[in-house]
C-alpha cells in the first residue's frame, strides 16, 4: 500500500471485534511510535499499554462514553515536559508536539496492520493521571483505543476533509 493510500485508509474506529490485538501487532505499533522524530531528538514520551482489567476500568472512568466502555486495550501516550525541548525565544515547550507525532505514527502503523484506533483527548485528565499514577511533569496527551474493527467495511467509509484549495496558500 502506498503511503498516501495508508493515510486515506486510516480513520477513527470506535467499534471493535471481541478479539485482542496480538502482542506482535502491539509491539509494531509501539515501535512506530518509538521511531517518531522529536525536537532535539529528546523523545520526551512514555507509552502506557493499558489492558489489565483494573487499569482499563480506571481509564474508563476518565472517558465514560458508551463505545469506550467496551474497549479492552489502549495505549495512553504521555508527554514529559521536563524531558522535552523548550524554545528559548518564547519558552514554548514541545513535549505535546513530539508526543502527537508518535501517536500519528502509531495510528498509521495500526491501520497498515488492519487495526483500528481512535484518538481520544476529551477525557478527564485528572482521572487519567490517577489511573496511571503519572508524575507532575507528565501530560496524558491522548488515549489511543485499539482493536480489530467489528465491521471491516469501516475502512471504506467516506472521509470528510476540507479541499486542498481551502487549506493551502501558495505564496
Ligand atoms: C487531537 C484529537 C483528539 C480527538 N479526540 C477525540 C475524542 O475525545 N473522542 C472521539 O471519539 N474522537 C476523538 N478524535 C477523533 C476525531 O473526531 C477524528 O479524527 C476526526 O473526526 C476525523 O475522522 P477520522 O479520524 O475518521 O479521519 C480526536 C482526534 C484528534 C486528532
Summarize this structure briefly.
This protein is α+β, with helices and mostly antiparallel strands and 171 residues long.
Secondary structure topology:
Layout: H1 3-9, H2 23-34, E1 45-50, H3 53-62, E2 74-80, H4 95-112, E3 116-120, H5 125-132, E4 138-147, H6 164-167
Antiparallel strand pairs: 1-2, 2-4, 3-4
Helix pairs in contact: 2-4, 3-5
The structure holds flavin mononucleotide (FMN).
Task: Describe the protein.
The protein has helices at 3-9, 23-34, 53-62, 95-112, 125-132, 164-167, and strands at 45-50, 74-80, 116-120, 138-147. With 171 residues, it is α+β, with helices and mostly antiparallel strands. It has a single domain, classed as NADH Oxidase (3-Layer(aba) Sandwich), CATH 3.40.109. Strands 1-2-4-3 form a 4-stranded antiparallel beta sheet, sandwiched between helices. Helix 2 (23-34) packs antiparallel against helix 4 (95-112) and helix 3 packs antiparallel against helix 5 (125-132). Flavin mononucleotide is lined by residues 11-12, 118-122, 159.
Amino acid at each position: 500500500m502506498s503511503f498516501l493510500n495508508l493515510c486515506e485508509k486510516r480513520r477513527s474506529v470506535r467499534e471493535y471485534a471481541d478479539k485482542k490485538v496480538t502482542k506482535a501487532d502491539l509491539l509494531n505499533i509501539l515501535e512506530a511510535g518509538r521511531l517518531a522524530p522529536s525536537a532535539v531528538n529528546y523523545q520526551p514520551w512514555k507509552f502506557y499499554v493499558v489492558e489489565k482489567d483494573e487499569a482499563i476500568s480506571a481509564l474508563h472512568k476518565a472517558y465514560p462514553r458508551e463505545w469506550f466502555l467496551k474497549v479492552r486495550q489502549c495505549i495512553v501516550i504521555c508527554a514529559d515536559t521536563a524531558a522535552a525541548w523548550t524554545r528559548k525565544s518564547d519558552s514554548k515547550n514541545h513535549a505535546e508536539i513530539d508526543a502527537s507525532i508518535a501517536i500519528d505514527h502509531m495510528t498509521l502503523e495500526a491501520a497498515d496492520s488492519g487495526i483500528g484506533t481512535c484518538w481520544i483527548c476529551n477525557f478527564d485528565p485528572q482521572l487519567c493521571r490517577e489511573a496511571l499514577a503519572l508524575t507532575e511533569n507528565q501530560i496524558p496527551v491522548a488515549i489511543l483505543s485499539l482493536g480489530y474493527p467489528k465491521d471491516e467495511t469501516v475502512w471504506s467509509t467516506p472521509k470528510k476533509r476540507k479541499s486542498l484549495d481551502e487549506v493551502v496558500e501558495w505564496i
